[in-house]
Design a protein that fits this description.
Layout (H helix, E strand, L loop, with lengths): L13 H49 L1 E3 L5 E3 L16 E5 L5 E3 L17 E6 L5 E9 L8 E8 H37 L1 H14 L15 H42 L6 H26 L9 E2 H15 L6 E5 L5 E2 L3 H18 L3 E8 L3 E8 L6 H8 L5 H4 L6 H11 L3 E6 L5 E8 L2
Parallel strand pairs: 9-11
Antiparallel strand pairs: 1-2, 3-4, 3-7, 5-6, 6-7, 8-10, 11-12, 12-14, 13-14
Length: 448
């Protein structure tokens, strides 16, 4: 039964939230870790490349000699064939104080820009063909030389960059594989960790559908208190319902006897007609309100109750057919065997009993009781070929909150109880005209 508030949509799945949070954090850490490793490897590779050039520069210094005229020359090869290959990207160059240049064969007729340096210095420049070069250079004084000799050696950074790119590809491929593995592990961990909650949800669905009465055991320590508290609520709810039923039954039994005694005593009393009329009104009101109180006390909203509708309708039809045997009413029970009401059998008996009794009362010769399932709802219909409703009665019945027992004279108090029981069980009740010519009463109840 709705209280008029807009129903809230379910929030995002807890599993999705946990997995998404873990993945975001993992990707941030992997991205940061990958950037740090890539930067560290590049710095280490550049430093190692510089050390190689330093070693070559010291080897070049070792094979450099000064002639008597003050000129310098390299008396031996540096041992790396790339210095002999034209524009290989590996070059050396010596600038004498006089300005004369001695160059490696790889430079051919090109020169590298000279940067005056005291101590050893590293810098990056563009080579003869625009290739990136790392240069290590320094000024040295040789015995017999007229001044400082500028010595320079350069290596091709493309080799270094290719190595760094290969490392980065391998690094990011490994990180992607690691991320995929961690994603699977996170999903498995979350699903395994939330399994008790899914089991709790399944148990609650089973209770709502009437397949069980209580939550099972075996929950982990974090969930067990919740399951125990819910079981305690279910047990307390059942006790309250049973106690209310008992009180209502006792009250009904206690009132019927004094009313019967009063009715017997008024048999020969003057003015008994008025007194009997008032007594009948009292009886009628007591039955009405006790019926509604019993309906409320026997609420079908207690979890765990369910019953099939066809046997209930057939039992009621058998009894009513015997009571009204002289009228030769043809009753058609068109209820599927899988039509299930999620609520107490007694409530369904009370609702169908009232509707079918009214149909038998007003039918001329045919009654049809049908049912169908629609979106977890059970829709029951009771139709007859009687006189039906007048437009005025139909308009009153359509009004929200209208009392059917007052709007439709002759239909009795049972319809008010049907309305209350349907609402209590989370359903609704409506009346319109049947294609048989009479009334069609429709009950929409939890089922499916």
């Amino acid at each position: 039964m709705s209280d008029g508030a807009t129903p809230r949509r379910p929030g995002t799945s807890l599993s999705v939230r946990l997995v998404a949070a873990a993945l975001v954090w993992m990707l941030l850490l992997l991205g940061a870790g990958g950037a740090v490793l890539s930067t560290a490897f590049r710095q280490s590779a550049v430093q190692e490349f510089g050390h190689r050039l330093d070693a070559l520069l010291r080897a070049m210094i070792a094979v450099t000699e000064t002639a008597p005229d003050g000129s310098v020359s390299l008396v031996r090869s540096l041992g790396d064939p790339r210095f002999e290959q034209v524009f290989s990207g590996w070059y050396w160059q010596v600038a004498e104080p006089s300005g004369r240049l001695i160059r490696s064969r790889s430079l051919w007729d090109s020169t590298l820009p000279v940067h005056v340096a005291g101590a050893e210095e590293r810098r990056e420049i563009a080579g003869p063909r625009g290739e990136p070069l790392l240069v290590v250079e320094r000024d040295l004084r040789f015995p017999g030389a007229a001044g400082p000799v500028h010595m320079l050696i350069a290596g091709d950074l493309r080799e270094l960059n290719d190595g760094i790119r290969s490392f980065n590809r391998l690094l990011y491929a490994a990180l992607a594989l690691f991320a995929a593995g961690m994603t699977v592990a996170i999903i498995i961990q979350v699903r395994f960790g939330l399994r008790p909650l899914r089991r709790l949800s399944t148990d609650l669905t089973a209770i709502r559908d009437g397949r069980r009465q209580r939550l099972g055991g075996g929950y982990p320590r974090e969930v067990a208190p919740l399951a125990e508290a819910m079981n305690a609520v279910l047990e307390h709810d059942s006790e309250l319902i049973e106690r209310a039923r008992t009180h209502v039954g006792n009250l009904a039994h206690g009132l019927k006897t004094p009313l019967a005694v009063l009715q017997a005593e008024l048999h020969d009393t003057p003015g008994r007609a008025v007194a009997e009329a008032q007594l009948r009104t009292m009886t009628r009101l007591i039955e009405h309100h006790l019926g509604r109180a019993a309906a409320t006390a026997g609420s079908g909203r207690a979890l765990g109750s369910r019953c099939t509708a066809r046997p209930v309708a057939e039992e009621i039809a058998t009894v009513l057919d015997r009571i009204h045997a002289s009228r030769n009413i043809e009753a058609e029970i068109a209820i599927p065997a899988d039509a299930v009401f999620h609520g107490p059998r007694e409530d369904l008996q009370e609702m169908l009993g009232n509707l079918m009794e009214n149909a038998w009362k007003w039918a001329r010769g045919k009654i049809r009781v049908g049912a169908r399932n629609a979106e977890r709802r059970l829709i029951l219909t009771v139709e007859d070929d009687g006189p039906g409703l007048t437009p005025e009665q139909a308009a009153i019945v359509a009004q929200r909150g209208a009392r059917l027992d007052e709007a439709m004279p002759g239909w009795g108090l049972g319809l008010g109880i049907v309305t209350d029981l349907a609402a209590i069980n989370g359903g609704s009740f409506a009346i319109d005209r049947s294609d048989l010519g009479g009334v069609r009463a429709t009950l929409t109840l939890p089922g499916g």
